[in-house]
Design a protein that fits this description.
binds guanosine-5'-diphosphate; single chain; 12 helices; elongated; 8 strands
């Protein structure tokens, strides 16, 4: 399970402080040291760890904590709040277009889970927000991608627009949006090509797709298992495309959690959804506060 080792270590630390009738500055220092090590071991970005630890330390030695009747519990509350803040605080809602259709662009490296997430999210939003989705297959470089999207669309009964792999992705997107409008689809999800690495050709093409599709959301799909790499990828994509959100996939795996904990802080982009498995219903809106309480037990 994701975060298992981090959760175990933090819970151990919190247990030591929970029942204390008095908490000294030395206790707080010891707690902060253990939290720091646990986060570093979970592959959280070291700058993020540094500012996080100094924040909890500052708050935990504050008067309202040390003078309270249950200082141990107050310290834990501080850690929990700051952990939730680190992941974005309140849940970040989807942006819908004031004038339909709402357009969502999926970008990311190959294998991150773009195609799967586009289909999952089309299905999710159709049910949750009563929308009529269409998906556009704009990944013309990976031959199986178009077929994969069509198969998923077939399973979910969601139409997929394709012009095959001989037409430019920008043109596919332009025509796909025309067709969606003509057929009164109020939600358009665009699956784009991934590469093995971030490169300029990919970015130029994505910028052009962005320019013709005016997306309401640009979601970077990242694989939680890739740790700090996921954070670097997010920074590069964000610099060029101004992402509106991240979908973090494979949180059902045994990721240490570093990417999930760092990405918001480093890039300013919130995680909006998490992928929890390969099945089509395995996607959930991301709630930082719930995740923080899960980690702290
Ligand atoms: P793309 O190249 O970015 O379009 O990636 P795909 O959508 O083809 O996904 C790559 C692989 O990751 C596929 O085998 C998916 O089933 C798998 N996958 C995607 N999301 C998740 C997830 O949340 N959990 C798990 N366990 N597997 C996932």
């Amino acid at each position: 399970m994701a975060f298992e080792s981090l959760a175990g270590r933090l819970q151990e630390t919190m247990k030591k402080i929970r029942g204390k009738g008095k908490v000294s500055e030395a206790d707080v220092k010891q707690m902060a040291r253990e939290v720091r090590l646990a986060l570093l071991e979970a592959d959280v970005n070291f700058k993020v760890v540094k500012s996080f630890v100094s924040r909890i330390q500052e708050r935990a030695v504050g008067q309202e904590v040390l003078k309270s009747l249950t200082p141990g519990q107050q310290v834990i509350k501080v850690v929990q709040e700051e952990l939730a803040n680190l992941m974005g605080g309140d849940q970040t809602k989807l942006n819908f277009a004031l004038k339909p259709p709402t357009v969502i662009l999926f970008v990311g490296l190959q294998g991150a889970g773009k195609t799967t997430s586009a289909a999952k999210l089309a299905n999710f939003i159709r049910k949750a927000n009563n929308k009529k989705p269409m998906m556009i297959a704009a990944d013309v470089y990976r031959p199986a991608a178009i077929k994969q999207l069509q198969t998923l669309g077939g399973q979910l009964n969601i139409p997929v627009f394709t012009l095959g792999d001989k037409v430019s992705p920008v043109e596919i997107v332009r025509q796909g949006i025309e067709q969606a409008k003509a057929e009164h689809n109020d939600l358009i999800l665009i699956d784009t090509a991934g590469r093995l690495h971030v490169d300029d050709v990919l970015m130029d093409e994505l910028e052009q797709i962005k320019a013709v599709s005016h997306p309401d959301e640009i979601f970077l799909v990242v694989d939680a298992m890739t740790g700090q790499d996921a954070v670097n990828v997010a920074s590069s994509f964000n610099d060029r495309l101004d992402l509106t959100g991240v979908i973090m996939t494979k949180l059902d795996g045994d990721t240490r959690g570093g990417a999930a904990l760092s990405i918001r802080s480093v890039t300013g982009t919130p995680i909006k959804f998490v992928g929890m498995g390969e099945k089509m219903d395995a996607i959930e809106p991301f709630h930082p506060d719930r995740m923080a309480s899960r980690i702290l037990g």
